Amino acid sequence: xxxxxxEALVLRGYKLGETSKVVVLLTREKGKVRAVARGARGxxxxxxxxxxxxxxxxxxxxxxxxxxxxxxGQAELLHSAFRVGERGLDAALFLSSCAELLDAFSPEGEAxxxxxxxxxxxxxxxxxxxxxxxxLRYLEAxxxxxxxxxxxxxxxxxxxxxxxxxxLEYHRTAHGxxxxxxxxxxxxxxxxxACSLLSEIFSRPPSTLAGRGEPHVRALESFHRxxxxxxxxxxxxxxxxxxxxTREAAS
Length: 251
Ligand SMILES: [Zn+2]
Fold this sequence. Notes:
Elements: E1 4-16, E2 20-27, E3 31-37, E4 56-62, E5 70-79, H1 82-85, H2 89-105, H3 113-127, H4 132-146, E6 168-171, E7 176-177, E8 189-190, H5 192-201, H6 214-232, H7 238-250
Parallel strand pairs: 3-5
Antiparallel strand pairs: 1-2, 1-4, 2-3, 4-5, 6-7, 6-8
Helix pairs in contact: 2-3, 2-4, 2-7, 3-4, 4-6, 5-6
This protein binds zinc ion.
């Protein structure tokens, strides 16, 4: 009997032997798990396209409770990420960033229903035509907030007084935004447009985000990258890959 049958998002896979692979899954029931998919590679791969990153699947997992590596039984494809990847280079790169972020933030074996629903919502938003760069900022912001890592937008992180409207000034030592009285802040400073994008991110679904111009999206990207790296104590791989691919495409 299967240990667990659950919906899951495929995060990534790596080779194991000649014909198998290990898949990393974000499951709805148990959070992140690793499972051996026997026969997933080779001439007649058993699971076909069900194990592509960010595909939504229903899986049966076998093994012992608490084991580090489970065994994948059935994997039924519920929703393929193929249509997202088909939208072009930006959307394909979005999928790899999205999978890497979810992998980096998800603890093994611990279900986080809000993260699971967030992941579904961002993939669907890009599939339906939302701007991949905006939706990635959405995912970063929410992953940081759900893990208690996003500084408050309305209170000074040093003296707790209300912050003035408009731009936000980050101060590294205070690990948050500070008011003018607690400055000068180390930076970065988020301009009013970037701040209004942020409040939209925290109050609306990802499919309804309106653009604020590329510089503001990029300002958030670099701010989030600092917060993510500080938390993980390492840099993620995909932002660099995206920068290189974008340069390549432009040249
Ligand atoms: Zn203050």
